[in-house]
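User: Here's a structure from my thesis project, written as structure tokens. My advisor, Dr. K., wants to see whether a designed sequence matches the one we expressed. Can you design one independently, without my sequence as a hint?
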């Protein structure tokens, strides 16, 4: 079987990519993932808030003893914190040690920051850049159009700044995701990663406090992603990467059948360990052999909207089917 795919300007040995997470910060873990068979790794996202907090903390530490003794002032010069220096050094080291592509991930608050930090990541050796549009709007001051226009502008700014392929990682929380994605596609997007998995707060009712649980995804979470893979396949120029809920080989195969060029995994590694990567790849090969597929392209997008004759397969199909077969579903899932 030939599992190779073209994604983000690179020929990858298979469609399995490790998404942005703390997994990439551990060099030994990253090397083990490469050995297990992953085709690329997305380095942990560089968040502007992280840089600003580190800078503020260092400034406080540097000036802790200011003016306590006149002779001590010269011992604490007013130096500027290097910001993402440690992050960039770790990225550079990872890039030097791995033979597979390493993609960087970036999330900023301000337009001026995106191109600055993007250029830093390119200098550190990133093979491609993933713009992580992780934005949870919590007020009503900005309209949907303002938010979308700003993100399109950021994409164009970064595209003009760097000379490596650019991916955008989106959430599903847009009024019309397809229309927005088409605008990004027209702006020169190289790849689309769907979807961001936000950290949502929970409430501990005993302590009456907010908490931030670390919720890993499940296979059921892949359904929304697969739907959009099917809708977008062959309808945009950008590569497509499924990101949420790819836990087992069945999820990987389903995403490709819908039209994904590649998938990103994180939760399944935390749940099942590094060796599960090899299992997923082996099972993909066995499935392809059982179906007489030699190449990924032999079945990629086979079940996308464009390839199916059923016009409502990716819109109201399941809803209509449920209504028409309500009796069958009641027998299959009786209320206890």
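Assistant: Designed independently from the structure alone:
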């Amino acid at each position: 079987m030939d599992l190779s795919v073209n994604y983000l300007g690179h020929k990858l040995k298979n469609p399995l990519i490790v998404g942005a997470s703390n997994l990439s910060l551990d060099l030994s873990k990253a090397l083990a993932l490469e050995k297990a068979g992953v085709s690329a790794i997305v380095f942990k996202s560089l968040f502007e808030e992280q840089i600003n907090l580190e800078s503020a903390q260092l400034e406080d530490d540097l000036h802790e003893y200011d003016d306590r003794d006149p002779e001590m002032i010269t011992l604490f010069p007013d130096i500027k914190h290097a910001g993402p220096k440690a992050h960039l050094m770790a990225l550079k080291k990872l890039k030097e040690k791995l033979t597979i592509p390493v993609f960087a991930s970036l999330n900023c608050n301000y337009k001026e920051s995106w191109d600055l930090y993007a250029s830093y990541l390119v200098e550190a050796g990133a093979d491609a850049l993933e713009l992580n549009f992780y934005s949870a709007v919590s007020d009503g001051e900005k309209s949907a159009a303002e938010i979308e226009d700003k993100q399109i502008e950021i994409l164009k700014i970064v595209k003009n700044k760097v000379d490596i392929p650019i991916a955008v990682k989106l959430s599903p929380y847009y009024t019309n995701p397809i229309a927005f994605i088409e605008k990004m596609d027209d702006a020169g997007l190289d790849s689309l990663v769907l979807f961001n998995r936000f950290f949502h707060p929970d409430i501990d009712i005993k302590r009456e406090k907010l908490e931030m649980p670390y919720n890993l995804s499940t296979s059921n979470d892949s359904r929304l992603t697969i739907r959009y893979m099917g809708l977008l396949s062959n309808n945009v120029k950008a590569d497509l990467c499924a990101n949420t809920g790819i836990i087992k080989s069945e999820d990987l195969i389903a995403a490709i059948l819908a039209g994904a060029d590649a998938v990103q995994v994180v939760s399944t590694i935390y749940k099942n360990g590094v060796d599960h990567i090899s299992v997923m790849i082996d099972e993909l090969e066995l499935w392809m052999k059982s179906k007489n597929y030699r190449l990924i392209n032999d079945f990629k997008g086979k079940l996308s909207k464009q390839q199916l004759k059923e016009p409502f397969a990716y819109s109201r199909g399941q809803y209509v089917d449920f209504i028409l077969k309500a009796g069958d579903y009641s027998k299959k899932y009786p209320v206890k």
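When you compare it with your expressed construct, this may help: The longest strand covers residues 102-107.
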